[in-house]
Amino acid sequence: MYYALLFSFSTSIFVCIRIVNHQHSLSDKKMYVKYWTKTV
Q1: Could you give the C-alpha distances from 40 to 9, 23, 25, 34, in angstroms and in order?
Q2: What is the Cα Rg of the chain in Å?
Q3: pTM of the complete model
Q4: Separation of alpha carbons 36 and 8, rounded Å
Q5: pLDDT 10s per residue in the chain (40 long)?
Q6: Residue 22 half-sphere exposure, CB side, CA atoms within 13 Å?
Q7: What does the domain layout of the chain look like in residue ranges?
């Protein structure tokens, strides 16, 4: 229960940060793809 609450809280914070930094979304996506191709 506590971990689920913590997870949803951190997720909401992450979403807020994403919305604030929306102007960087394109380069962010490129970095995200690079990160995932490196990981997987």
Answers
A1: 27, 27, 22, 10
A2: 13
A3: 0.42
A4: 23
A5: 788 888 889 888 888 787 777 666 667 778 778 887 877 6
A6: 4
A7: 2-39
